Amino acid sequence: xxxxxxxxxxxxxxxxxxxxxxxxxxxxxxxxxxxxxxxxxxxxxxxxxxxxxxxxxxxxxxxxxxxxxxxxxxxxxxxxxxxxxxxxxxxxxxxxxxxxxxxxxxxxxxxxxxxxxxxxxxxxxxxxxxxxxxxxxxxxxxxxxxxxxxxxxxxxxxxxxxxxxxxxxxxxxxxxxxxxxxxxxxxxxxxxxxxxxxxxxxxxxxxxxxxxxxxxxxxxxxxxxxxxxxxxxxxxxxxxxxxxxxxxxxxxxxxxxxxxxxxxxxxxxxxxxxxxxxxxxxxxxxxxxxxxxxxxxxxxxxxxxxxxxxxxxxxxxxxxxxxxxxxxxxxxxxxxxxxxxxxxxxxxxxxxxxxxxxxxxxxxxxxxxxxxxxxxxxxxxxxxxxxxxxxxxxxxxxxxxxxxxxxxxxxxxxxxxxxxxxxxxxxxxxxxxxxxxxxxxxxxx
Length: 445
Known about the structure:
This protein is of the alpha/beta class. The chain contains six helices and 23 strands.
């Protein structure tokens, strides 16, 4: 099948600099659909031709209009499962080409490989004049089926003004044009563009898309930051919930991915932990427990932008799930979200969920953890990042989950790679030079 996507930009966008006139990305891919996103900076139209890498097909035309800052996106349907598609985009006198693969059918035992990480441009470690965000180059070489961008896709609240950094983001965003400009700054990085042309992406936000450690309903800039995030990523929320970001994707018989929104619905971080405190909100919490429990995929991967077992934030305003002290000991009267975390885990355990993995970022170091909260049940937490940010270090883990760290490494920009085959899951942690820091294989229960 050959599909044409026509994007019409209705007015002139901001010019200036050597930024590309055309940006394209593919995201939220399923077995039969994909979201195509494009942006122009001048008046005109973008035509994207999509076809299987092998074979020809019919033609169709899809027309979309400008949606916020000269971006547009559209869900394309009728695609073939487990098929590599190539695309070519033309607009404003430029041409871009790329490819992506659709998910296998639900009952297909197909091998899957994906990468994940987060935290891009933190601490002012933004696009370098010499080389840009170079970690995307080894990520491209892994040829993943998709990329999970696990939060902090921008740092709207931190200036990019260090020496040797590409200019254009030396401000803290407080208005919609400024939030858009911070997203645009990231997406114009050549290495990132190359990577997004080579695969598809599932993106979720964390705090720095708005402000450090923000709690949704109490944050006045949340609606503005959320709008810019939705404009700049190939995400298509349901019509009845146009701001919903949590969602799930099935990749054949072997994998189902559940992406959490840990920001939009959360209680204030300063509130004491207890049954009434929530990170997910009641609807998302029910969605998570019910959908993970009902999944027939071998591996259930839950994406949480904040870690389960690593305390972050201030003791009087915890930002991650954990209530533990800096020594890893559980604390009474803490301000984390451990009561909700433990209730969710208890539900999943009681419902017999096996082969559960949480993928997280946020803490700026790499770590693989096996949790054994009860003698008969265990799960994994895999940590990666940053892509480019202030470097963190491992710290004591929350003893309440009975954790065992399999590997931990700070001081390097990094990403994780997961390969799932019928017999096992293999995870590798890789630095920005492409060197493998650690590899671990586990079989399904």
